[in-house]
Amino acid sequence: MELFIDTAEIDEIKSLNITGLIDGVTTNPSLIAKSGRNIIETIEEICNEVSGPVSAEVTATDFETMIKEGRKLSAIAQNVAIKVPLTFDGLRACKVFSEDGIMVNVTLCFNSAQAILAAKAGASFISPFIGRLDDIGSDGINLISEITEIYDIHGFETKVLAASIRSVQDIIDSAKFGADVATIPPKFLKAMYNHPLTDKGLADFLADWKKTGQSIL
Ligand code: E4P
Fold it and tell me: Which member of 34, 68, 72, 83 is catalytic?
């Protein structure tokens, strides 16, 4: 399973990328707005830092402008994945970009019918939004499970990218139900390695070790 980081904050990305565990980055217009920075400069910096796919989202809603925006974003670096919304025009743009060999992440997916269309349009990634479904009393993880099952049955190569993650449990469940990728906000990535029993166990080991008076080096 690949782990992407869901942020446009370059300092956060750099500080987590030194682990060697970051396979890619996703951004969206809200994350760019939150960073307060220019989208082109930000995506360029992220692409210089991370060699895996970096999603940059178009903001136009009509096909022609989406194509222009997507081409501009794609020219930033080879590892840019153009993010398009799961709309009629977004799917048309996805087909064009994918036929040109450009990676596409189809975003704002909320049911399996949408995911089938994205796969048929040649998307590299489909982004089902777990948290936003849970927020309205629906079942986000069930959607991940349904899409992975459908894609497996029909041999679609589009990767299922679990998005809108709200907890560490969402990441575990996404992995369990076959998501190829989870895109994770930095605070949950940090929370993934934390466990109170790890901390306690380490403190106990070190206390016992101190009593020996030994040093490995
Ligand atoms: C990433 O690709 C998505 O845009 C992001 O995960 C959405 O998360 P949110 O629902 O917390 O805004």
Answer: 83
